[in-house]
Every structure is written in C-alpha cells, then in structure tokens.
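We close this part of the discussion by returning to an individual protein. In the encoding step, the backbone of a single protein was reduced to a row of integers, each denoting a local shape. The sequence in question and its structure tokens are set out directly beneath this paragraph.
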Amino acid sequence: KIKFICDKNTVGPAWVIEERFVTRISNVTISGCAITGLLSKGGAILLQNTSMEMNNMIFSGNVATLGGAISSIGRKQGNDYLIVRNSLFRNNNATNQGGAIHGLRVPLELYNCTFERNFASDSSNGGGNGGAVYINGDVPRSHRVENCAFDDNAAGFGGAAIHVSQTQTGIIIGRSVFKNNNANGLLGPAECVTTSTCEVHG
C-alpha cells in the first residue's frame, strides 16, 4: 500500500491528472496535503478533463479551497466521471465547497465509502456548501451514493454531508447512513437545490 504524507514543505496536491481517458488507482493513503489560494482545488488529488476510478483509498487531513481531498472538473460535454469504492475520507477541509470531494460536470458514484469529520467552512460569497461532498453542473446520468456512511461532517452554510446543485439528473442515495452532520445555514444532511432532485432508497 502506498502512502503520501505531506509536510509543511509540500505545495499543491499529491497528484494532478489531466486530459486522460480513464485512470485507476487503489490502495493509496494521502494525508496532510494542503493547497492555498483563492481557487485552489483538490488538496490531495486534482482531476481535470479526465475520468477516475478509485478503490480502497484513505484521505486524511487534506485542505484546499474546493475539495479538501479531491477536486474533479470535467469537460462541458459531460464525458468524464469519478467513481470511488471502499474508501475513507476523514478530517479533510475545504475553505469554500466540498469538505472532502468537489465535483464540477462529472457524474459522481460512491460505493461503500465513509466520510467522517469533513468540513466546508466559508459561508461567505456562496461558499460553505457540502460538508463532505459538493456536486455542481449538468451531467448525462444521475450521481449515486450506495452503502456509504456520513458522520460528523459540517458545512458553514448548506448540505451538511452532500450538496447537489445545477444538475437536471440529480442524485440517487441508497442504503446509506447519515449521523450527526450539521449545516449552519440550512438543515438536512443531504441537500439538493435549484434544478436538482434527491432520490433516497432504503
């Protein structure tokens, strides 16, 4: 198993992956990485115009403006995606959106993942949304969350665990547990706004 442990001399994400078709990574731990700046993205991993499949990952104590652990930004055509399985996100912090994961124009699928004590902190200028996960932008299929646990995540404004906005396809949540998540501005662990829909099963 590979470990990336960042220190005060580390600048930027552990990985930046751009303009690839599909990348698969597994059995990696990334902790303590931080990237600063007004629009810094992905404390641990930044994905741009690429699809990613992850399995058995640990993200701990990573910090960025957008996506404390991961920021995934897709092409406008909506062809890119992010799938994460069997992974742990703990104590990651976004100073704006998506304490653990920030997604823009990418279908997001989460299976058997745990999100603990992630935080999207800044509620000014439309920020502080998605204590664990923030998703924005139209995509060709619904986002999915299956068999996941969200515990003690917090948002400075809305979507204590999950915030979804500006997508016609919405999100499907199945057999997942939400406990002790808190949003200062709006109530509810999972929040869908504007043109989005939340569909919850089990």
